[in-house]
Amino acid sequence: MKALVDLVPVLLFFAAFKLFDIYTATAVAIVTTVLQIIYLKHRDGKVAPMQWVTLGIIVVFGGATLLTHDETFIKWKPTLLYWAFASALGVGQFILKKSPIKVVMGAQLKLPEPVWGQVNISWMLFFTVLGCLNLWVANHFDTADWVSFKVFGCTALTLVFVVIQALLLAKHMQPTDTTTAENAMPSPPLDNATHAETETAITSERLSALLQARLNPTQLEVIDESASHAGHVGANESGSGTHFRVKIASPLFTGLRPVAQHRLVYDAVGSLMTQGLHALAIEVL
User: Fold this and answer.
1) 218 burial type by CB count under 10 A (0-12 exposed, 13-18 middle, 19+ buried)
2) Which band of pLDDT confidence, cut at 50, 70 and 90, is reported for residue 4?
3) Could you say which DSSP state residue 212 is in?
């Protein structure tokens, strides 16, 4: 569904160009991108930063094309967008020391940490080259050829890149946990003997330290609710260290759906699930 929503402005741009001209197509692209942002805001309650960047670029350069009646501006738009993507990946990788690709895909794909860095750099280079290639086509071919390249050529190159990358990454992929519950993620029940052997004094402070290290939260509260679950599955005699509630806000959650946000939290403390932590209720602030 998301892919379809992202493709609508591109497909309507192509249709308008074929039926009318580049200026009508540009106007259509601006209007459909604005409507796309409105739809995403209504559906998800927020819009990812890069989608705002996309809107800004199409409004500025599309508007310049319409005002000056010069198609050069709209031809620069894909290049600036690709370079904006590359810059965001580069800032995350080399300045913030985090992989933006991992933030987006980490909930669905398990890879060793060094490999995430390689994936991030490969996408950064790909977007940089794609931006340069768009300019080359725009400067060496007519507008009709450029439109076809923008709509179909860039899409095809991206798909080929994704397939090649998937083949290269297959040997590094690790099994993923398929738990999908959003509000509570219990571990398998432990019998008393196993519980006694594996429990290692899980505390709110211990969970907080793991979440601080992995998610850099701007707000964080960890509450031990174990006592209120006495007699339930997974509870222990001490009445502590088994059931927790986490209230958290983190910049890493930006643009993610609730399930993916909860998965990041779960991954951060997942090592404790075999040590006595039974359930985690998550509230994203």
Assistant:
1) exposed
2) low
3) H
Please answer whether residues 244 and 229 qualify as being in contact, where contact means their C-beta atoms are separated by less than 8 angstroms: no
Bridge partner residues of 223 (DSSP): 245
pLDDT at 78: 95
Answer for the pair 98, 92: CB distance below 8 angstroms, yes or no: yes
Q: Is the pTM of this model over 0.70?
A: no
Mean pLDDT, the chain, integer: 83
Please state which architecture CATH assigns to domain 192-284: 2-Layer Sandwich (3.30)
Nearest to 99 by CA among 108, 107, 90: 90
Question: 14 with 147: CB under 8 angstroms?
Answer: yes
Closest to 78 (Cα-Cα) out of 38, 33, 39, 42:
33
| 124: helix, strand or coil | helix
Q: Is residue 197 pLDDT above 50, yes or no? A: no
Domain residues of the chain, as ranges?
2-172, 192-284
- Residues 6 or more apart whose CB falls under 8 angstroms from that of 155 comprise 10
Tens-place pLDDT, residues 92-129: 989 988 888 888 777 677 778 788 889 999 999 999 99
State the Cα angle at 81 between 136 and 102, rounded to 5°. Answer: 120
Query: What pLDDT score does 256 carry?
Result: 83
Beta bridge partners of 222: 246
Query: For 282, phi and psi rounded to 5 degrees?
Result: -120, 130
Residue 238: which residues within 8 A CB-CB, separation 6 or more? 226
